[in-house]
Amino acid sequence: MTTNTGADVSRTGIIICDHGSRRAQSNDSLLDVAQRFASRFDKDCRIVEPAHMELAMPDIAAAYAACVGRGATHIVLLPLFLAKGKHWTRDIPSLASQAAAKFPGTRYQIAEPLGMDELLLDLLKKRLDADDQPTLASGEADPRLDNVPSTQQRVQCSTCPFDLDTESGEIAIKPDSVLGNLATVPSN
Questions:
Q1: Last residue in a domain, options 63, 91, 110
Q2: Residues designated catalytic
């Protein structure tokens, strides 16, 4: 059996890749997705590994190595991202290239992100119909933040050009960020 790429299924590794999180629960959800994907599509995808782009393990390099260790010579990365942002256009290709360089004779490709699909609309409607989350009044505390100190309730992505002072809650532009560099460019 071959995949739509023409690669032998027994030699094709699938890496389902998300961003990665500092929260173990979020990272565990990717493992669940990878396991369910492997179970549902076991005839077409025999080698499936989870990977986080950053912040957690396994990372793309570890997942790539695991696929090769299981016999894969062709690796397909499936980004669990909605759009073609910088992670898809820059970060994932860079990380995949670095991982592949350690395994001469392998090939890889990076699939499109999820993008706009009718199934996504169905999933959003399913979440709307579930109505299983609290309804909060303006100014009411969200119960998901009950055990989170107020100084930790505003967090940011590590690639954000802003810096959050967790003590004061104030936000500043990181001096070495794109925005910080723009602030130092003289205007004409």
A1: 110
A2: 19
Asked if 24 and 85 count as a contact pair (C-beta separation under 8 A), the reply is no
Q: How confident is the model at residue 181 (pLDDT cuts 50, 70, 90)?
A: low
Helix (H, G, I), strand (E, B), or coil: what is residue 136? Answer: coil
R_g of the chain computed on alpha carbons: 20
Assess if residue 132 is contained within a domain.
no
Domain for residue 14, yes or no? yes
Q: Do 15 and 106 fall within a single domain?
A: yes
pLDDT, tens only, 10-29: 899 999 999 998 888 889 99
Supply the pTM of this predicted model: 0.72
pLDDT tens, residue by residue, 91-111: 999 999 999 999 999 999 999
Both structure tokens of 182: 């723009």
For residue 172, report the phi and psi dihedrals to the nearest 5 degrees. Answer: -135, 160
